[in-house]
Every structure is written in structure tokens, then in C-alpha cells.
## 1
Amino acid sequence: MSDRENETAMLEIKNLHASVEGNEILRGIDLKIGSGEVHAIMGPNGSGKSTLARVLAGQEDYEVTDGQVLFDGKDLLEMDPEERAREGVFMAFQYPVEIPGVSNTYFLKAALNAVRKHRGLPEMDALEFLKLVREKMKLVQMEESLLNRPVNEGFSGGEKKRNEIFHMAVLEPRLCVLDETDSGLDIDALRVVADGVNVLRNKDRGFLVITHYQRLLNYIVPDYVHVLVDGRIVRSGGKELALELEEKGYSWLEGMAPERPVPVGA
Amino acid sequence: MTVSEIRENAIEGVGGYLAELERFQPEGQPAWVQALRRVAAERFATLGFPSLRQEEWRLTNISPVAKGTFHRPESDPDALDPVQITPFDFEAAARLVFVDGRFSSRLSSAEGLPQGTVVTSLAEALLRMPEKVEPWLGQLAKLDHSFVALNTAFLRDGAFVWVPRDAVVGPVHLLFYSSSAEDGRATVSFPRNLIVTGESSQLSIVETYIGHGEYFNCPVTELAAGANSSVDHYKVQRESRDAYHLATFQLLGDRACAPSSHSISIGGSLVRNDVNAVLDGEGIDCILNGLYLADGRQLVDNHMRVEHAKPHCASHELYKGVLDGKARAVFNGLIHVHPGAQKTDAKQSNRNLLLSKDAIANSNPQLEIYADDVKCTHGSTVGQLDDDAIFYLRSRGIGAEAARSLLTYAFASDIVERIKVEPVRRDLEELLFARLPQGDVVRQAV
């Protein structure tokens, strides 16, 4: 890992603190993700895993109180959510939102063209787009009928998660954040989703895979595993760390989180 | 801009209308029409204008109409510059144009219709075929409503559409243009439309209301849907922003007919639509949908009343509104199920989307059920755009404003996409794109 210190990371999170409604959830996260790397973040409920994903995506409910996030050297936290997406950050939602009245394909075309415009590429016409969509659908075994339905409306849990990976495949982001994409999936659906992700792995793309369960990491094999407890990364290691966690449980590491300071006046 | 010639007598308040009625003597009306008008004038004299103290009007202040000064137009309807109507025109089986409530034969065309079909002006029909008009005119819309009484008292012209048994007709386009006088003085007109469909016939018909300047438009449309007939009726209200539009649509359905009416409300500063349906035969399937877009200080009031008089009828109502600025919307929906109207299936829904914190929507669905084997549901919502949906769209690269527009469009297009007359639907889609910020993004995305 010492070589990495000299490389410029694609994503660099420094001492990140974030709160929601005055409660501090992230209490100093430091993390570097280089191009081509897959990082897994594991941790018990309430450790701040999803908060980290949402802060990276720019959800406004979370207030960053300290620290810095650099994406390709640019200040990510200064950007609106749409700017982050156009720069190449993608979050697959833990709970994808249903959007009645907006067709899945049309929405994706608008998103793709916004991203392409930002990158100085010409907008895609309907025919090119359809070709691209057909090709990407195969990656996640999406049924064609889901294309013309309103975004996520009436989709099953598995269909929603597949749709997220499908969006990711079409938008071709540089950094993919998967927020518990595995939760609630049966083994077949999990395989489909994981295969889709694995096809998208390449030397220019980084992944931050957030999961509660070790099982996903049998299918998406990470380069690094980090354990988040109480808003801090308490242990980092290779993929074998996930197995160790599986064996010993989170309680093994929970004691390693520093005590929370007692709020003034409490 | 084409403007109306007006009569010099100013009409103001109830007394002003009654005085004008003394002077209002259209030529050649059959005695029964004169009698109907007299009864209506008496009803209006008794009723006067509604006030906020009346339950049906408690949220809709009509004082701009009750206290305003208006003039009856005397313009030549054939003198209208066609340029005024071209943007709203589309290729139809027949087109009738009315200027300040009077028929323009020059701008109208109704040729090549199926044998026996009548699409003409009401004034013409009263002269040439009163026997077709008499059984229906004034028999559907009730005079216990001030503005129906006023319209009937001033009854002179409008559209008459008569579709014979088994005929398939449409789309028929009724285009109503109104305007203020050259000096800005406000006009008032009372278009009166009668639509009758024969057994097993089919009709699609569009009423479009447009205009310039300040005026008070008080139309009444009566529709008698014959047994087993299918009728698609559309009303697109795009009056001037200074107009007062107080309209009544009255539907009477016979056995197994399938009437639908879509009411789109966009223009006007004060708008009231009374939509009443009486389902007076078994097996009727009635659809009443609406969309209202309002901003600035517009007030849009939709009052619905559906009467299930016979068993085995279905009525489905969906009214949606998008309100911005300081706009106000009122929705009052009553479903009344008569004794014996078993197996009624009635559904009513009103959804309001508020785009600003100053917009207000009042929604009041009501059920009155006097039968015991029925399925009746109603619901209403008033809310803002979903923050989670906005964030989801933004997180995929769509800008904040475009995301809001896309969601607003999706909300409104739910009604627009049900319009089966393609040019009307396309026109309204374009209008939505034009009104929404970043409409181009939305246009590309849908």
C-alpha cells in the first residue's frame, strides 16, 4: 500500500465529519480510492455507511461540518448533486425512488445527454441511444418492458436494484458508489447484479461498495475492505478482512471506536 | 388585434343585466324559446349573483363579475381576422367559430359530414329545425344556478350538434373567441351549446375558448348522450389572463352510453367550471377528468356533481391542478347515488401540486349515498414535489430546475395524455413545455 501514497487518488476523503439534524454521524473519515480499485465498506447498523454514500452523492439533508473530499483533485463538496453526476460520480441508491409519469428510458436519455454535454460530447440521437440501451440491458438481464415503464414504479425489489446498475452501465461513471445494493436480494438476483458490476470494473473506474453483509463480497471481490464503526474507519485490510468479520462479527471491532465526546451541556 | 364593437349601454350589477334584457330582442326566436328566456330572466332576478355566504360559492369571490361594468358586443363576427384563431385551429371534421358568442359563417366549415348529421349554429337551428332543438334546449341545465339562468335569459347563439343514430362524427371543433372593446371596455357574452347524440353513435368534440383583453364569458353546454353512444368531449379554456370565465357543462346520459369529458383550464383571472352529470340509464360508463394550471393571482374553481340515478353505472373523475405564484384552486366534488342505483361504481380523485408557498388549494370531495350495494371512493391530495424524487433525478445528472420541471410535467401529462384528439394533445404538451423552466430538457426527455 505504500506505493499508493505517491499516486494521485481518484477520490480522496480527508477527516470528513457530517451531521444530520444536529447529530454527528461521520466523525472523521479518511479514505483514498485509486482508479481501478474496488473498496468495500462494512459496518453495523447506524455506523454511518449510508451517510457516507449520501454525502458523496450530495444529498442536502446531511451537513458536512468538517473535512474535505477531492474527486480528481476537485472539491466534490462544493458541487451540486447534478455536477457530481456529470463529473462522473454515481450512487446506486439503497432505496431507489419511484417516479410516476417519467419513463425509465426517457429519463435515462435526459441524464445521459446532460452527462455527455458536460463532457463536451454531442447529444445522442434516439437511434444511437436505443442501441446503447439494448446492449447495457443485457448486462443486468433487464426485461425490455421495464424500459418503458415509469422509473421504478411497480418494480420488484430486485428489479429496482438491477435498474440502478443498468443506469450505472449507461452513464459510465468514473466512481461508482453502491449503497447496500445487495440488501433484500435473493441469491439469483444478487448474482445478476454482481455480474453487472464486475463487467463494469476496469482500470479507470473506482468502486465504493457499501454493504452490511459479507455475502456480496463473494461475488464482487474487493481490493480493500474498511470497517466503519460509529462514524470512523476502525480497521482496513484486504479482502480477507471481510471473512474475518464474517467469523467474528462486528462486536469484535466495536470496542475499537473511540468514545464519543460528551456534548457540552448534556 | 381584433376588438369588439360594443353597445353603449353599460351593464352593471343584477339591475344592469335585467335592464339590458329589456333591450335584448333577438329576431326570429320561436315562442317557446322566448318563454324559456323569460322564465330564466325571472329566475335570475330572484337569485341575483351568488355571494360568499352561499355554500357552493363560499371560496369563490365573483365580485369582479357581480360589480364590474360590461357591455354587450355588437361586432360583426365575420370581421374577425383569421390570424387570431389560426394558432388554435386544427384539422377537424367540422369547425364552428364564434366571436363574442356569435356565429361566424365565414370562418366556419362543416361539410362532408355523415348523412343526417347537423353541425351548425344554434340560432340557425332554431330557425330551420326547431323540432330537433326543442326537446333538449334548456331541459338539462338547471335554472337554479345564477349563471345558467343568466346565460339562458340571454340565449341567442352557440353551437348545435346533432349526431344521428349509428353515425361516427369527429372531431368537431367549436372555437370561441372573445375580446374587450378597442378602448378597453369589458364585454360580456353568453354562448349556448347543445350537443345531442343518437343511439349507438360516436362523437368527438372540442370546445376551445380564447380571447384578448377583459371580458366576461358565461357559456353553457348541454350534452344529451343517447343510448349506447360514445362521446368524447374536451373543453380547452385558454381565455385571456384578464377574462372571467364562468361556465356550466351539463351532461345527461342514456342507457349504456360512454361519455367522457376532459376540462383543461389555463387562462382567465377568475374561472369557475360547473360540471354536472346525470347518469339516467343503466350501464353508463362516464369519465370526467380535468387539469388546471394557474399562477399569478388566478382563481380556478371546479365544481363537480355526478348523479347516479340508475343501477350499474360507473363514474370516474380525476382532476389535477398545478398551482404557482399566489394562485388559488377550489375543487368541490359531489357524488350523489340515488335510492335504487345499486352496483354503482364511483371514483373521484383530486390532486393538487403546489409549486409555491403562496399557492392555495381547497379540496372538498363529498359522497351522498342512498343505495346500499355500491362502491364509492374519493380522495384528495395537496402537496409539493417530492424531494427524494428531485434528488434522485439530480444524482443522475439532471439539473435541479429541469428535475422539478420534469416531475411537474409528469404530474400534468397524466391528464393530457388521455386526450384522444391528437392535435389538441400535442398543443397542450407544447404549452406545458413552454411554461416550464428548462422545457427543452423536458421535451427531449418525454
## 2
Amino acid sequence: MFARVVWLVLRKDLMVEVRSLEIAYTTLFFAVSCVLVFAFALVREGRAPEDGAAGILWISIAFSGTLALGRAFERERQSETLRALLLAPAPRPAVYVGKLLGIVALLAAGEVVLVPLVALLFQAPLFDRPVWLATILLTGTIGFSAVGTLFAAMLVRARSRDVLLPVLLYPITVPVIIAGVRATTTLLQPELEVEVLRFWLALLVCFDVVFVTLALWTFEPLMTD
Amino acid sequence: MNTGEARPAAFDVLTVEDVSRHFGRRRAVSRVTFSAPQGTIVGLLGPNGAGKSTMLSMLATLIQPSAGRILYGARDAVSHGPGLRGLIGVLGHDLFLYPELTARENLEFFGGLYALADPKAAATAALERAGLLDRGDDPVSSFSRGMRQRVALERALIHRPRLLLLDEPFTGLDDASAAGLVARLRTIADDGTMLVVATHDLDLVDGLFDRAVFLRDGRMVAEEDRPSALRATYRDVMTRPQQAGPTNRAGT
Amino acid sequence: MPKWFVPAAVVCAVMMAVAPVLIANAPYESTMGLVQKIFYVHLPSAWVFLTAAIVCGIASARFLFGADPRQDRLAWAAAELVVVFGIITLVTGPLWARKAWGVWWQWDVRLTSSLMGWMVSVAYLLLRQFGGPGSDKLAAGLALFGMANVPFIYISVNYWRTIHPTTSVVPTLPTSFGLPLWFSAVAFMLLFVLLLKMRVRLEEQRARLDSLYLSADA
């Protein structure tokens, strides 16, 4: 039952997104603009700083992720479809997981464009160790999305939800940003310090486990009145 | 107990006992009592802000009452567990349909969510009942309000609920569609379902209700069995001066 | 107000009045000089900051899973005090650090964790203020997440070097340092309890007023 509901919700979200691609296009464009703004802001003597790549990548993921989250749940707010989901006898944590996977898929699609762009503009050898990079991005994106999906869902019926989402989300996802940036920076060094990288990855995985569990635990009480 | 897979015991009467709900200082619903046995249509009538939507949300188990109880059969929502939601269908004011998906996809999705054995077949049957089989593969955003209403009603009924809650179902319908909806509701009730309809379109529903509950500022100001001449009663009841104290019951 | 409130308030006021005397008479710390005295305000307020955060977190958890409105009032009051004492800590800290070590701010473990914890409590207050109805539960959820967050920040920043003095400074101090510090700490804690009680009481009165209003014509 749980897995079936997760699959149904995820499939529905992907179907809805594919029809219009509204969130995909706008979020992607926003992420690209973000990177460009950073590039222009930080360019010195015609060259962009090389050390900035990791930070700029993760900031762009965070900003565009917040935007995507806001839009995805705004869509559920129209026609009150989130309420319809809550009215079904489906277990509510399953609804959460379904939405979470949809958001992760969306952000991952964005990263597919972002990473080459950052690598290009900042001369960062991001693709030298692709498996490590993919792991870092995946665990970081899951962590960010886990908290983001919960907060966006719980703010659906709150006032000032547009501005409150970043206000609530960024302080809580600071560990993801720290670990993600540090891990990516480590990855970009010529000689790879594997223990350091392992530490940051372990931290990210722990964060994911703890916060997905916390979200599953609190989703029901936060969604009911 | 409930695994969510097995359907909980179906109930044959809905009882609302002295139910109140407030938000901070604002009294949304205040001490409302009525009951709806199998096969009856109860009307919640009142102006905007009277508390009809809040009452329906409580009946749908989305909001808990601040005071009083709502009993489905002999037990309340908490003791039934989450499976109870599988016995309730809701037609909201905002229709609960994904505009980007087709009518068929919407119905199949909700059919799957309500754990139907064959969502695809159920969706086709639902489209047929709505008379929209030929438009089944068009996105809902291309439908008129009346067509969307029909799909939304089928969505609410796809899992054959015991209790059907409708919030302002006549909004934006033309006369023919409204008459069709009234006939449809009567058929559904005759099948054994309990219906609670919140509306302020009194002219359309004359003769539909087995019981009418009049709400004003969250309070129940009158209750009538087999009401006739709804508009006259409504005007009379609503312009009566507000009195604190027991509600008035115009009986059979 | 409960019976103990006024006597406690008097005691607290007296302690606050006496504290500067004790602080002034404490011996000069040889390397840092006069500025080091701010330590007697910084450390106690940091302790209160931490205590308030823990109170807020626990009350939020209990409210979220138990729906007891008293826990909600407690959590809100505690969150406000986290912000207040956090400001005191985060201002006195850099003032001291500037003189003692020459930098206003350093991204080490304690500073970063404190700052982020403070940010979460500000977000809590913003949510309660601007979130509309139902934001009490949402804020409780935020507080829980904030609490769960702190170990991660601590661990991640701890992986770097830190220049913040370790708490072992306290036990090894000679009593002439020790007495003003503990005196200050007790005074601050007492102040915290008094403020918390006052604030919770305000919310209790508000809730009672609401229920009176609601039952006025039921």
C-alpha cells in the first residue's frame, strides 16, 4: 500500500510536470541566471575565481530548489488537490515520500545542466571524478529536498508562505550546504583526500537519514488541524 | 484494527452532537447538532461565512471539532482510524482535479489512491456515467465548469463512499446542469449513501432535502424535516433576531 | 502570579545590583585586561540561551505530539528568550573577542552553531507572527528540526579548527574569578525563569480571554 501510493503520487507529479514543463523551464533558467550573476559579480581581471565553483554550484542549487518547491506546492494549492490527497485513505507519509522523490527528480534534472555550466564558467574540473560527484550531489539534494518538501507542504495553508519558505528552509539546510560545498571543494583538489571526502559524505548520509525520518514522523501531525 | 487495506465497518448513520469549532477567538461553528441516516440528503444552508465549509471539513475528518463529537455509526473518527476516509467522498468547492491531466487520468489516479481493484475500468465507468466518455482524454483545463463538475462528482464517488459531502456544488452551473445534478443526487441517495450538501442556491434545491439545517454565524438557527418553500423559510429564519439559547426546531 | 514570583523578582533585582560590584572587584585577568569582565555577562547569557533553546525544543515536541496548548505557550515564550539572550550572547562575544584575540568573528564550532540556532529561533518567531492560523503547529515542527540540526552544524564545523576557549576555563579559575561568575550565572538564570513565567502567563491570560469570549454566548 505504502509503495503503491508513493509510486502513484510520483507518477502523477511527473505526468503533470511533463505536460507543461513550467517548473522545469523556469527553475532551470533561474539557476542559469544565478550562476551567471555570480560569475559577473566575482570576475576579477577578466577571469572568474576558481575556488568559487563549489560554493556557487550549491548556492544555485539551493536557490533554484527553493523556487521549484514553492511552485510545486503552489500548484497543489490551486484546486486544493493537496487536500484531496489528504482525504484519501492513503498513508500520509507515503504522500510525503512520493512528493519528495518528485522534487529530487526535478532538482536532479536541473543539476544536469548546472554542473557543466559551472565547470565551464569557473574552469572547475568537476567531471574528473564523476562517481564521487554524483554521490555528493545526490545525497545533498535528497537532504535539501527532504526538509524542503516538508516545509513547503506545511506552509501550503499558511499566510506569507512565499517568503516564509526560504526563511525557514535555509537555516535548517545549512549542514547540507556546508557538507556539500566542502565535499565538492575536496573533490576539486588535484590530489584527492579520500578520508576527508568520506567524512563529508557520511555526514550527508546521516543528515538524510535523520531528516527523512523526522519528516515522516512529523508529516501527519503537521498536516492535520 | 485497521491496516488501511481492509475497509472498516460501514456505518449507517452520521451523528453530529453539539459540535463547535473555533479558530482563536473566531467562532466558526457553534453547537451544531443533527443526524443523517442512510439514504438521506441533509442541506446545510446559510449565508457566506456561516460555517458550512468548516462543518464539512470536520465531517470529512480534515479538521477536528473543538467541542462535541461526530459519530460515524457508533464510533468517532479517531477510533475508526484512517480507513474511515475510504468511506467518505468529498466534492470540494475547488473541485480537486489536476487541470493538466486528462479526465481519465484524474479518475485513474484517485481510483488507485482509494485502492480500487481496477482503477482503469472504474474510470471508464465513471466517464460513462458523467456522459463524458468521448472527452475522457482531453485535459481538464479544456472543460467547461459544468463538465468539470461532473468529472469532480464522479471522482468523489469513484470509491462508492457511504457519506458524500458537497460544498457549493451548484456554483457556476446553468439551469439544465443544475437540474441534472439534483436528479443525480437523488439517485445517489436512493442507493443508500448519506449526503450533506452545503449551498446558498436555494431555488435550485427545493424539494431535494430530507432535512435542512440553517446556519448563521456558526450557529444552528433552525432545523426542518422535509422542508418546502426553502427560500421563504430561509428569509424568515435569517431575519429573525439572534437569540442566545437553545436553537429553534421547526418539526414535522 | 504565583506566590514565589515577587520574592524571586526582588532577589533577582538585588543580585543584579550586587553583581557589578563583585565583577569590579574580581582580579584583573593579566592578558585581557578590563574587557575580560564582559565574560561575566557573556557566559551566563550563553548558558541561558542554551537552556531556553532546550526548553523550546522539548516543549515543541510535546506540543506537536500531544496537542497540549500549555506546551505551545511555553515553547513560544522560550523561543522569544532564545532570541533575546542570543542577541546578548552574540553581541558580548564579539566585543570580548575583538579585544582578546583581535577578531570580531570567527567561523568556529560554537559561534557558528549559536548563530544558526539563533537564526532558527528568529525564523520561529517570524512564522508565528506572519504565518496565520495553524502556525503554532508549524512552528513546533520547525523547532524540532532546528534542534535536530544543531548536532550536524556542530560536527561539521568542529571538523575545522577552533579558536574559541574551551569550557575548561571555568573549573580551573581561582575562586576570585569563580564567585562573580557563578553569582552572575544564578542571577541570569533567575531572570530567565522570571521572564519565562511572565510571558507564559501573558499567553495564558490571552487564552483564557479567548475562551471567555467564546463562551459568552454559546
